[in-house]
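Below: protein 1.
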Amino acid sequence: MASPSSVSRGPDGEPPLYLTSGLLTTAGLPHLFSTRHFPGVRPWKDRRGPFDSIALAGVDRGALPSDGFAFARQIHGAGILEATRPGLLGQADVLVTDRPGLPLAIFTADCLPIVIYDPQERRLAMAHAGWRGTVAAAARVAVDALAKARGRPHDFLAAIGPSIGPCCYEVDLPVIEKLEAAFPGAWRGWVTAAGPGKWMLDLWKANEDQLKDAGLSLAQIDNPRLCTACRADLFFSYRRGRGEGRLVALAAVPPGSRASVLESARP
């Protein structure tokens, strides 16, 4: 299993602003997973919008712009929206697009941000998955959306961003009952008993398994296993500090059409 391979530091060696995935970078996908030090992110329902483009313009963002992001009101499900324009698209936890240069945004503070890229068809999907999204199979929905658009899962690349780990994520019986109903038996491989009526839940493994069941191999899945609750120096965490702030995962299909990329690859 691969892991994010690069970190963007602030000026003068200050703490990292964001992380990137080696798999996605090699595929040419502009993307980032923010740390708590990344500026310009506001609550999505802020009347000014979730991004401060002036603050964002002042920091390195790789090949991503400082405005024009597409995002949704995330409701802990597996609803899907096609992004054809920037701004608030509606309610959903899975976004897909084939528009080059249109960045998608997923907001988290413990839940998993999952980026899935089809470099052959040049389509992008992003999912937001906490325990409810995992029960609803948001990761599988995202893969299936790309597959329905002529994609082949064995071509896809996926990265899971920083999120709460099994070291810190304790759940109780109502959550286990939902997992059992959705994934009979399989959920047992995702939990460790933590006392009467308590379990530590590994959302990383649960979602890796969903991605594998959808057709990806483990080598196609990049997961740093960075826990937002453990790493207070790098990340916000809803469980550790409710209301502290939000992290954001950003990604965009690189500029240029699929036809032009294929043409340029010809001898």
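Below: protein 2.
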Amino acid sequence: MGFEKIIFEKQDGIGIITLNDPANRNTISGSIVGELGCCLDDCSDDPEVRTIVLRGEGKVFSAGGNINVMKRRIEEGKYHEFGPAMKKLAIVIEKLRNIRKPIIASVQGAAAGGGLGMIMFCDFRIVAEDAKLVFPFTNLGLIPDCGATLALLRMIGVAKTTELLMTSKLLSGKEAYEWGIVNQSVPAEKLNETTQNFAKTLAKGPTIAYGRLKTMINRLAFEGLDFQLENEAEYQELCARSEDHKQGVYAFIEKRKPVFKGI
């Protein structure tokens, strides 16, 4: 099928999915979410696709949520849109885990918020050393979404997860490797080559065994993901109605520090 906000290509047993909205820094829009879900379904059913690469077009992988959309929701009082939007995104997160083919996230420039949360559910993460990775949710008066809290707790434990999420700490790609949340950190100019070579290796591997292994990992490492995603949709809408969220959004747009009041 044809897509507008993603590009899909096949080569050497690899399905390459590219988020393709560079003018908006590949923010996680409804269009991208819907098309990505459909593309993952196509890849799941296509025997020619033995492994998948997820990447972003342009200078960044994904800037996460669109701050202008958040501003519009505040101005129009459409806080109820948060829950349904997150539920649609939750479907994609579950597809990333449930598809029985290895998925490699290839990250250049930056991955923030939901864009970073999404790659936490890929099987492998290869990032440029100078990439900027951040979960900025608390700076916007929101909670982390895309199941990021669960994924990070399983990867790096309570102390580091709390530090990363509560302080909206910015990590370079190199630091993210040192923290244990990505598999490889490589010079930016080597990112595509490194990703492609690794994808070719996986595509030549025992895909049936890979799929069953992924199922076992899901049962052991990602149990409770569906419950977590449901909680996030509920809590995010509650946070979106707060004055702190309004303050965070306008502070971001005005390039100043937010003044939170806990209301």
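The first helix runs from residue 30 to 45.
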